[in-house]
User: Fold this.
Amino acid sequence: MRLRVLTLILIVTMPQALQAESALYLRQPSLSPDNQSIAFSYQGAIWRVPRAGGTMTRLTDGTGFDTEPAWSPDGKQIVFSGINFAGVSDLYIVDEESGELKKLTNDFYDDRDPAWSPDAKAIAFSSDRSYFGKDGHMNLFLYNLQTGKIQYLTEGAHNDYAPSWSPDGESLAFTSDRDGPFNIWIIKNNAGEFEPLPIADNFTDSSNNAHNGKNRLNGNGIFKKGQTKNFFPSALEKTDQLKKLTKFTTGAFDPVWLDEDNLVFTAFENFSFQLHQIINVEEKFEEAPSVKNDILSTVTDYWTANKLAGEVRSSTVKYKRKFNLDIAQSAVSHDPIFGVSGGAQLAVSDMLGNQQYYFLIYNNAQARSDFLSSWNIAVTRVELSKRINYAIGGYRLRGRFYDRVDSFFEQSQLGGFVAASYPFSTFQRIEASINLRKEERSYDFRGTVIDGIVVSNSISYVKDNSLWGVTGPMDGERFNLTLGNTLDIQNNDVSFFTIIADYRRYFRLSPRTTYAVRLMTRINQGKEAFRYFMGGSWDLRLYPRWTIWGRKLFLVNQEVRMPFLDWFVLRFPFGGMGFRAIRGAAFVDLGQAWDRDYEFNEVLGSLGFGWRLRLGGFLVLRYEIGRRFQVRDFSSPSINFEPGLKKAFWFGFDF
Assistant:
């Protein structure tokens, strides 16, 4: 909740690398009494950095979430609020030099906003440990470092936050909504006078411990009812004065004393937070109307956290699969060469997603007479309930297709397949598949070349430990090595082997910048081996899609992925729209495809810049601009750039 005056100082003095990447995550800076060091919260831990700049020192391990650091008057210790993984917020003290950690409170109450008294004897803080805390109200308390006791400073059905001591310790400024909007209030102590102050007796011990802290300042943590003499300002003392210094209807927060008679705070006005200063606090306090002090509630039972109760017994319920429709979509398309085609696909799965079914049906008839024979149907079942995942399916596919070398051809397939995957670990697995089908293929110029029973089988080793960002991987590596064979076991019309190697590595240059490289080769060698194709934003960029064909290919992609725009907003008279995390990339690609019909006499390349924009969490739009070039004459290589800039717009995640 705190907004400190020192935020600008911290960003200016912090190391430049941290400024560039993580300045947005720095919180709650606190200047040491000697003005030489700044403590702050970052990545769930408390850090220290010299005010003049230099090396950051981590003071807590951040196993919970540590916030709101405040220095002791001698500058040797820092008190802060730490939230453990159970969501419990307690107060801690860390030694600035040794890093020794001490836990002050240890219960389920929400303790926050610690502030050290100028005489170093006590810590004021905000907590819901009062009677009214059961309704979510926060009041101010005092942790006495000499006795380990917690005392009330305020109490009531309102919220008191951000206590701040005056330099002489006689006044305590804080934020409160006790009469409506949040405003700045001050409790002033009458020097030389004191009355007994009740002790908070609902301070209970607990095993909650975010830091495994040692050397707790208090003994057993359980305090008996009693009273203690108080020399600190308290709204519960009749002799102390409580007054409101500001009258904002939109809220005033986080007071900080500049000296004994001046303080600054933040206020919300004109749709923005602004810094304000109160000059001559003493005079303003005397002019403010008197307010009735708080009265401590007379109760015997304080609120405690609700506990789960009931009979506990173990039982076994057999899981019954119930399937639901996950995907249902249809499409109709028209092509000037292949004509009209249309169809639909469905996907259903059980509640756990362990068993999935996929259905595909479409028709690509080019003439009325072909309608009945042009139905394409495929059914697949995927089983994920065991360590070995597997899929089985059957299909009937028929249609007219195009090959860049052999022109148009008719192909029909009727068959089934089995595929399985076995994980060695979270990141590595082995995959295998076998596909058996009756296949017929007839070319317009070559005639029938395949009419038999064809078997395709493959085995793959896969590794993937990549960490993803908004538009693609940012760290780790991905690898796929596949070996396969396809054979016509009836007439020997088909016989070829397949090799695929695809390696991708991501080198993190900074938290938001990555150098990515991909090395890939694909080979189909043998009788009636099908051709690969590439070109476009997914592989060899700035070349037309699927215009590079061959039974052998290689590809090298290199790019530096970097932030471009974190936030881009368009405003209109009737509203607006915003775009987040627009990423940039500088790339260089090399690749080529070849076989006996296409000689390998040059290497194709491209270089340029690109931008990626993710929409809706699943779609990444890509725009690239740059130059294409060719590397020729391998005995004496030369690079020839094509004239003009090439541009490409497409979609898809980064490789």
Summary: The helical segments are 7-13, 16-22, 281-287. The first strand starts at residue 27 and ends at 31. The two ends are 41 Å apart (CA to CA).
